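Alpha/beta hydrolase fold-3 domain-containing protein: structure, please.
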Amino acid sequence: MPGSHGPRPTMESIRHHVSRWSQQDLSTLAKTALVRLPRAVPMDALRITSREGPQPFRLDLPSRQAGRTIPLYVFIPPTTFPSPESGESTPDPGSFPVVMDYHGGGFYLGSCLEQAPFCARLCRELKAVVISVDYRMAPLDKFPAAIEDADDAVRALLDPTYTPGYQALREGIAEFFRAHWFAVLQAKATKDERRANRVPMPPPVSITLDTTKIAFSGASSGGNIALNVGMHVPADLGFPDWPSPIPRDYPHPVPLLLLYPALDLRQLPSERTRHERMPVVKPRKPGKQSLDDHLASTYVSRELAAHGRASPGLLDISTQLHPSAKILLILSGLDTLWEQSEAWDAKVRSEGRGADLKTMRYADRKHGWTTIPEVALSKEERRTRLEVLDECVKFTSLTWAGRDAVRVMEREDGDVVNAQGKEKVSFEKARVDQEGDEVSLDSRDGDEQEGRDENVHPVTV
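Here you go.
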């Protein structure tokens, strides 16, 4: 039952938004309009692209900036409501783990709706509330706007002292539950009862977000944000000390599901290594930028691209990765980002956190294949897409259960999966275009390349 909760935009906010767009040059406007066309797809399209559901509702979360909200797309798992006559106000289940997801798109395109099949699957299988964050993007909002929005959403989940969003998040979800409950009662009522408005409005709903079981996920640039959530960044490049929004003393394991993440924004898209089996890119004229390079540059300047919040893959793992983080890293071989992820995998292991990292390599898969609509995928791509979703569910479920997900999954299966799903092959063999030294994120020049009760908070609305 899709819906929307939150303030309607005012004329002042609309005028302000139009004014900001008018300040962009014509070239940037045209290119942005081209790549953002998919965002115009209505939410009803999810009934085709995400048929199994559940369908999300939109909740506008107050941000740190007065008068500005962050759109959240919230997925609620199937629940059973008590009869109104019982006097009960808590559905079954009434307590929910939470997954927070961030869509991809290079920080200048993409939308929460493209992640809907992924989010809906996590919601169904984990019986969790899944929140997809529609963070600000370039060219209007530059670094670190997207990361600030991610921080605000996490604080609304975890920090009771965060007055703009903590209560608003819970009230918005509880209001949706009540509206959904009323819709269920209406569906069961007779036509005469509905016409006579005799369907009773259910009581305010009491639900709990179980903050002892949280997880963060993201694909591509969304993977950058999901990793950001679990990192502490020291003062650098004019920015003050920037701690993780997950408290340092948070005692429960936190799954980070990183799907082919962008970890080093010092590299523009055209500067990344391309597998020889990827489509050939037509050479650009001297002084001409590609569409991707142009729009990527509108998010973060070359000077700030080395900041830890822009390029979390550069941060020290031993001191800056949250001690509770447990990471599932998915790599696609036909992808210009594979090199960054391979370097980061080696970095995590060399800096003492290898026991907290499970890496799965899909040598013959292209970037974004887990979010591309199924109709555009081959049979084998659909199979491995479902496999990735299964692995994300398994990793999160095991971690929340207090088990060592990395060790369990390593024991059950090997690290490397080829596209045929037959023999396990070396990812190195699949990278036929690569020879020579190991890649190091830290050494590469960016100008050359690119009791748990204490945390459970019920609310009644």
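Notes: The longest helix spans residues 166-188.
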